Amino acid sequence: MSRLHDAFARAKSENRAALIGYLPAGYPSVQGGIDAIVAMVANGVDIVEIGLPYSDPLMDGPTIQAAVDSSLRGGTTTRDVLATVKAVAETGAPTLVMSYWNPIERYGVDAFAADLAAAGGVGVITPDLTAEEAGPWIAATDAAGVDRVFLVAPSSTVERIAVVSGITTGFVYAASLMGVTGVASVSQAAPALVERTRPLTMMPIAVGLGVSTAAQAADIAVYADGVIVGSAFVRLLLDAATPADGVAAVGRLAAELALGVRRASAG
Amino acid sequence: MTTDSLPRSDSLGGPLPSSMPDTGGHFGRYGGRFVPEALIVALDELDAAFRAAKTDPAFQAQLTHLLTTYTGRPSPLTECLRFGAAAGGARVLLKREDLNHTGSHKINNVLGQALLTLKMGKKRVIAETGAGQHGVATATAAALFGLDCVVYMGEEDTRRQALNVARMRLLGAEVRPVMSGSRTLKDAMNEAMRDWVTNVDSTHYIIGTVAGPAPFPEMVREFHKVIGIESRAQVLELTGRLPDAVTACVGGGSNAIGIFSGFIDDPEVALYGFEAGGDGIDTGRHAAAITGGSVGVLHGQRSYVLQDADGQTVESHSISAGLDYPGVGPEHAWLADTGRATYSAVTDTEAMDAFRLLCTTEGIIPAIETAHALAGTLQLGRKLGPDSVILVNCSGRGDKDVETASRWFGIMDGDRAPEGRA
């Protein structure tokens, strides 16, 4: 059983959802990014997603675009992302990378999976890799022993959900709305999507996109196994007067959200 | 002589190049679909509508009617004697897509996709545009069919192509300048994709080139095939034979695929694509994905891409907004690898020299995009010699480029010619 499954199982045993936090690597600097992620973990984030900055992030709204642009202008490389994974994995939190496909293909599909495993990473979320194109990635992740997480969306038919669930390991990422990150709030489509997905997978299901508050986290924790928060953390770093302020603010939000995913079981 | 009198050759061995793509939208290792799962249902719906329309006589009749009565097809073939003299005496034949309504080949594809939009019951179209020609064509079709229309255009391009911004707004479209990234075509396409994934229920994204996720490369080719079909017949009628070479400029590559498709199964006809070489390939400031790029995934497909060692897209550079794109359609990548078509780069300076030459020898002001094909044709003609026949896709007209060209040549009042450019 992977460390990822351990984290979901532990949350379940506590009768709550797992809290999954996203931040991109290299923002505001490589070390600054690590500091912020470590603060998330220290304040109750169970599972970490580290964004691999990419020049053309089709799924991301202005908030993550701004941080990622800045990270790339600062010279962040794929090696820096793996170094960030290594530093964060040392906290003991299961650590995934979220990456658009081209940087992985460019690095080398097998090499990326192997180097991620060597850095202590547990898996990769690939938002623009379709099942039809995933053959080499399935082989590479199997060989390296890392999880591969794919997304389902409100528009996904039952047939598509079955296809995506069939190749996913770790957890199924349910996008709560049609759109990009950090713009709209979690939609009414989310519970229906989780309900449609549930019979088609044994994996935990985590809901992301448009989740920014403890109240939303509490709502989602009622029907999903994990709650994913990204842009709200990034926004705090973007707005912070100093990197230290940003780290502190990220820690505070993580603590609030950690209460949120626990509140559902009380109410 | 008629089109029918020259049978298609099938002597290539193996499947004809025209049999591509496969059912997954692959041209060899290129193409495919690399998109958020949220878009898969819309792409499947589009694919089904496209395949149904291909064999639907009513759809085809409606499209043909529009192409004839609205676009002004068939577009003529013009022999360029004075320009040809500068091209080693070759017979240079221009396929005049610049004379289409809205001023370029783009309208062929847009009318097809707009009809599909109606068939799918959607009320809103979006588009990306670089030079503005595709945006103008989309705004035009939206006006014609009463669709809401938003065009994404890099902020840098809205300045370079201000005339086309005004045209789109006059036609009732909303032009949204894109401020992210390099503020050019690539970023406009990113923003259009984000809009599409958000509004996919109501909206069709009319991609303007033979790129993007399947079925776009195949579908856009299908709607531009008319260029190749017409010009093959026209060249045969005029010269009694097939051309030795067909040339076109290549950014994403839609006009090139359109004209190439008419000759793809004629192995005796050489196909040449001319990419935007900007300041020169060796300077790194160019937009030549095949000539100066490497294999990668961008905007939903695998093809050649300008990228760095980490797979980050590198900014492209070209005087031509319509070619200023760091990727290229997957079929071109495949045609390049198989050797069926040959791709090389033309610098800004070479393109602008050819631009000027066509103006002064033929009385035709081409689009700067098209000028890249003309520059390549000059080089090719000198190689092939006086007996050769070269068909050039004159993909667009240059009204939109008058200001850029005036600045380049220093011919506006008060301008001084930059050294070596006049």
Report what the structure shows.
The complex is a heterodimer of chains A (267) and B (422). With 267 residues, chain A is α/β, with parallel strands linked by helices. Chain A has one domain (3-262): Alpha-Beta Barrel (TIM Barrel). Helix content of chain A is 51%, strand content 13%. Chain A is built from twelve helices and nine strands. Chain A has a nine-stranded parallel β-sheet. In chain A, α9 (189-197) links the parallel β7 and β8. In chain A, α3 (62-73) packs across α11 (231-239). The two termini of chain A are 31 Å apart. With 422 residues, chain B is α/β, with parallel strands linked by helices. Chain B is 42% helix and 17% strand. The N and C termini of chain B lie far apart (44 Å).
Write a concise synopsis of the structure shown.
Helices cover 51% and strands 13% of the residues of chain A.
Give the SSE layout.
The complex is a heterodimer of chains A (267) and B (422).
Chain A: H1 3-13, E1 18-24, H2 30-42, E2 47-51, H3 62-73, H4 78-89, E3 95-98, H5 101-107, H6 109-118, E4 123-125, H7 135-144, E5 147-149, E6 151-152, H8 158-167, E7 172-175, H9 189-197, E8 205-208, H10 214-221, E9 226-229, H11 231-239, H12 243-266
Parallel strand pairs in A: 1-2, 1-9, 2-3, 3-4, 4-5, 6-7, 7-8, 8-9
Helix pairs in contact in A: 2-4, 2-12, 3-11, 6-7, 10-12, 11-12
Chain B: E1 26-27, E2 30-31, H1 40-54, H2 57-71, E3 77-79, H3 81-86, E4 91-96, H4 106-119, E5 124-129, H5 133-145, E6 148-154, H6 155-160, H7 162-170, E7 174-178, H8 185-199, E8 203-205, H9 216-239, E9 245-250, H10 254-260, E10 270-278, H11 289-292, E11 294-298, E12 301-305, H12 330-338, E13 341-347, H13 348-362, H14 368-384, E14 389-394, H15 402-409
Parallel strand pairs in B: 4-14, 5-6, 5-8, 6-7, 9-10, 9-14, 10-13
Antiparallel strand pairs in B: 1-2, 3-4, 11-12
